[in-house]
Amino acid sequence: MKVSILAAAVLGITACHVGGGYTVGGTVTGLRGSGLVLQDNSGDNLTVQASGSFVFSSGIDQGGAYSVTVATQPSNPAQTCSVHNGSGTIGTADIGNVVVNCTQAGRFAYVVNMAANSISGYSIDAATGRLTELVNSPFAATGTTPVAAVVDPNGSYLYVANNGSNNVSVYSIDDSSGALTSAGQPVAAGNEPFAILVDPADQFLYVANTKDNTISVFAIDNSSGVPTAISGSPFSSGTQPTSMKTDPGGNFLYVTDYAAGEVTAFSIEAGAGSLATIGGSPFGAGSGALAIAIDPTGTYAYVANETGDSISMYSINPDTGALAALSGSPMPTGSSPESVAVDPAGRFLYAANVPGANEFSSYSITPSSGELTRAASIGAGTFPLNVVIDPAGTFAYVANENSNDVSVFSIDSVTGALAAVPGSPFAAGAESRSVAID
Fold it and tell me: SS3 of 422, please?
């Protein structure tokens, strides 16, 4: 069940707790196990039973510090929960933007098939990574020319951007079987939507419209998953936006601008979802800036430059969200990177490379500098377009557009080495373009 913190955040702006201090809270997403205990300042414990909003009972006076951590991880099933926006100093308002994301090994995979106007659904074998097609898969798309998909952080809904019909489809996900059911008529977006994203707190949906050069922003309904455009949407972006990522705390949004070879950066208004361009934006990237990845600490960003045959590397200012190019950026790749992803531990970057190479590569990330060193490469399908790492960091999934299938690789957690899992690649529909993992 999704519980929005929008009301709490708005009330917190004007709160004044004389004598009792200000409260600290936020949102938990993806919680399926039991026994999660959060702790503030090593003394105030809070047991959380389900995804949704939370508030610690003890108040903290103005000027006091707060530090939210996970005291006990959930079990049955075992999960790993991480805290973002978890520490700071109390000002003159309640704190409502702490984000706690809980993950486990992926259960279901969904592949968007552009030419087939369908979505292939699979169950994931947790031990081997093998895919088994779901009953009634592929599922018919409710829009035209689907190109991108994302599962919300609570694993309840699949959102699909339809490039041909200029809208977004919403599907509910059956928690037991993984089956998709349309949640209603598609919601209008801008012209030629190309990328789609849900913020870490599961409150807002972002859609990049390549023809309009805009970002549409929607508030997500708590009970139905249906998005509604917020005031001020759509927001102007750079030229031909093609990919989006937020930092782990959902404070900043980064958008690749393909035609301009840049990255536009926005601050996100807490509890409202609206966008404001940050100082220094846009930031230079390489030719054909196509896709972006952010490391799990929100320290580094990486951009795949398709026509520049390179990867741009940046550090992220945690206070302003500004990007600064790292030494050696952009780094030549020798082929055209189409998509990049960072593993959940932040140790490796993975890139899908085309056209001649048709390979999947891993790069080790130097923790102190964020710089990349090529670690391994392996053959993928024909024209690999999109790579996704499962939440446990055990497997990588690559959608191959021209061979109409999905390659699945196991990941060596020490070396980053890749190995095709038994049965890979797995058949999908015509022009499979995007993978989403629940």
Answer: coil
For the entire predicted model, the pTM comes to 0.93
User: What is the C-alpha separation between 192 and 189, in angstroms, rounded?
Assistant: 8
Helices (H), 319-388: none
In sequence order, the β-bridge partners of residue 22 are: 60
User: Count of residues for the chain?
Assistant: 438
Per the listing, tokens 């050069």 go with 213
Asked whether residue 30 falls in the same domain as residue 170, the answer is: no
Q: Which of 69, 103, 137 marks a domain boundary?
A: 103
Placement of tokens 């600064």 in the chain: 324
pLDDT in tens, 151-174: 999 999 999 999 999 999 999 999
We report the CATH number of the domain holding residue 281 as: 2.130.10.10
Cβ burial, residue 75 (10 Å; 0-12/13-18/19+): exposed
248 within domain boundaries: yes
Give CA–CA dist 33/24, Å, rounded: 23
- What's the sign of the alpha-carbon dihedral 430, 432, 437, 438? negative
Chain segment 76-98, per-residue pLDDT in tens: 999 999 999 999 999 999 999 99
Same domain for 396 and 316: yes
Both tokens of residue 12? 């917190």
Residue 66, Cβ density class (10 Å: 0-12 exposed, 13-18 middle, ≥19 buried): buried
CA–centroid distance for 11 within its chain: 28
